[in-house]
Amino acid sequence: MHTKFRALAVSAAATLLCFTPGVAQADDSTAGRCQDVSFPVSQGTLAGTLCLPDGPADAVMVLMSGSNYNHVYWDFPYQSETYNFRQAMNKAGYATLVADRLGNGASTRPPSLSLTATATADALHVMVQSLRAGLAGNAPFAKVVTVGHSLTSSTSVMEAIGYHDVDGVVLTGYSHTLSVPDVLGVISSYYPAVEDPGFAGHGYDSTYLVTRPGARAADFHGLNPDPQVVALDEATKETFSLTEYPDGLLATLPGESSLMTAPVLLVDGSRDRMVCGPGFSVCADSATLQAAESPYFAPAAKLRAYVLPDSGHAINLAPNTRDYHAVVVDWMKSVVG
Hints:
Elements: H1 2-17, E1 33-41, E2 44-52, E3 59-64, H2 80-83, H3 85-91, E4 95-99, H4 117-133, E5 143-149, H5 151-163, E6 168-172, H6 180-187, E7 190-192, E8 209-211, H7 216-220, H8 227-235, H9 245-249, E9 264-269, H10 286-293, E10 304-308, H11 321-336
Parallel strand pairs: 3-4, 3-5, 5-6, 6-9, 9-10
Antiparallel strand pairs: 1-2, 2-4, 7-8
Helix pairs in contact: 1-8, 4-5
């Protein structure tokens, strides 16, 4: 999966960039030693890529993207020194497992109406346990941290409270103060994948969805994104099903997050139209987000909140995303060493 889809993404980036004078070309450099892995689950097989840092590592981060994205979100091939989260964590000394959800990327594509956040949370548990047992001939990892984005922040909460088997949880694009009109506005930009030029004729059933062409800048990006990043985001957009949302959204209501016992880092962009509340009120700054979210978490979670200025929902793709990388690394040091 890593080689095949990375090559496709890089090819797309090169195509987009080669006609733009003065723009840096895609950087295909790779930090870490990577191998493709897979995980059998009840509905098929999840595809992933395990990357190890250059030195020894006893901590691993499991990275799954939310709806609308696949593994490219974490392993972004354009200007990787800035935008590649996976590479930044490997350079910091942590192993990473980037995985595609069912119906997504290189994973099995079952009937779309069979997809749920609960199934994704159960699959996440399979991955956590596989890493602790020793995956693909590698030594067992003593520490496992899950990292979610949007929908998979919810599934990370569900996995953590269902199994209590992780050492930390990073939640991004997540809060308990959703802006319902903006969420509905984003949903209104979805349409059947079979009607999209990039997916038509590829065997998707009629209820797999994607964003309409040109919608992603307003949906997911904040202030002044790099146009090349937005273009590559559009070129590598992903399918999903609305049936993944109902049980996933339960994790944004009061109750579930209060059962978390592992340390939690919560990161949102200050211009995230979906999770920052009306007028971006809860994302004014890190202290405001911390105050707004703390009542929803137990003391055992040791909640730390951070707001990335000017970023939208897709914080990995914000021009200043390296500031968020630094916060994650600092938090990881406090949690797993």
